[in-house]
Amino acid sequence: MKYVVAQNVMIKGTKDGFILKLNDQCGYEELKEELIEKLSVQYKAPADGQAVKARIEAGNRFLTEDQKEEVRQIVHQQKSLLVDEITSNVITVEDAEQRIREKEMSSMTGIVRSGQVIEVEGDFLLVGDVNPGGMIMAGGNIYILGTLRGIAHAGCYGKEEAVIVASQMLPAQLRIASKLNRAPDHDDDPHEMECAYIDSSNQIVVDRLQVLRRIRPSITKIEGGR
Amino acid sequence: MGEAIVITSGKGGVGKTTTTANLGTAIAMQGKKVCLIDTDIGLRNLDVILGLDNRIIYDLVDVVEGRCKPNQALVKDKRFEGLLYLLPAAQTSDKSAVNPEQMKELVGQLKQDYDYILIDCPAGIEQGYKNAIAGADRAIVVTTPERSAVRDADRIVGLLEQETDEPPVLIINRIRNHLMESGDMLDIDEVTTHLSIDLLGIVIDDDLVITASNKGEPITMNPDSKASIAYRNIARRILGESIPLMSLSDEKPSLMKKIFKILGKK
């Protein structure tokens, strides 16, 4: 076996599979070569033939999508390891801004009228009504201080934990992630201070606002207070 | 320098043209110089309601294409001593014959000579609508107390809010008292809270409006009709007077309360 001076790739076995630690100081080509070489020698497949998972830790190295794919391919081809996840301490400015936007609460005062569509990436706070034919789409939660008579789509990029809250819940439709719920044809209840969420049976339900604290504790972001 | 007001609704058949004709007439009766512009190119009928259809020589398209001067195309209504004029739409072209820039320029020119320019907007939200609102300083949205009309009015208000600084005002047309009282029609309160814009006036549905339109004499010229009084009240509100909303029915004091509530007096 060839003696390797610089350890650019460290392989660690754990109960859940392998962890491949990649050196973040060397060149990418160098790293790739060593990865191929190491994987070609050291490991014997288990007898039961089950796919073994591997996690790749890139440390402070930034891997582009193409490079990530390449690493994934190498690991998979060499040893048929299943790459579970590639972690890195570094993200692009663009991704960082995206994450901020997704966490941000956008707010608006006014009426969303018929034909108008408001789309935000994070949470949305509307001080005003959504009239029939109007639509709000948010990547996160939707809070309406007013009457919801149009369509609200929370978690529109797939976030199933998203909720819709309204002072007056009289929607034409409620949508959360890929689920959809239509208003009942005849309903004369007042529907004040309500929230909508996806429950354990995978359906959108509308309930009193008070249950929100229990079913979605993660909405509370404030800490401390007096 | 005059003021240009567009009368629009989104939905067809709610009474934009009738409202334009009657408000124009009523404002002229108050001694102001008024020019009405019909922008419903291809489907003009403001001229018919005013009874001026057989006196048209040039039209809106002739003016914007420079075939004549604006003054040559304007049809004078002889009943109002040179206070009421109509710029008719062309019947042979379509809405694309005019663009918003041309309308802006034309309305700008007319504002020099007239106190009020009332622009009758076609139904819809396409080219014709865009032309109509281009030159306007503010807008009057006409609706009827029906869900479909209110829905379209809501859409129009949304579009207008993006275009003009001044918020549009509302006229609720064709109110039928007995239906509103029995709850089978949206009431005034419901319509105004839904649209949440200021109410300029209400007009009661009156068979005489149709008779008058057919004769080419706007109902405003008949002093006895309730619709006529409503239009004249609205005209005076446009001129800046403050006049309470007319009562829908004289016998029921509870309705008066409702109307005061709309006016914000408690």
Describe this structure as you would to a colleague.
The complex is a heterodimer of chains A (226) and B (266). Chain A has helices at residues 28-41, 65-79, 93-103, 212-215; strands at residues 9-14, 17-22, 52-57, 81-87, 105-109, 117-120, 123-127, 135-138, 142-148, 151-154, 164-169, 173-176, 179-182, 192-198, 204-208. Chain A is α/β, with parallel strands linked by helices and 226 residues long. Chain A starts with 8 loop residues before the first strand and ends in an 11-residue tail after the last helix. Chain B has 266 residues and is an alpha/beta fold. Chain B has a single domain, classed as P-loop containing nucleotide triphosphate hydrolases (Rossmann fold, 3-Layer(aba) Sandwich), CATH 3.40.50.300. In chain B, 42% of the residues lie in helices and 15% in strands. Chain B has an eight-stranded mixed beta sheet, sandwiched between helices. In chain B, helix 7 links the parallel strand 6 (138-143) and strand 7. Chain B is globular. The A-B interface holds A 111, 113-116, 129, 131-134 and B 151-152, 154-155, 157-159, 161, 194, 196.
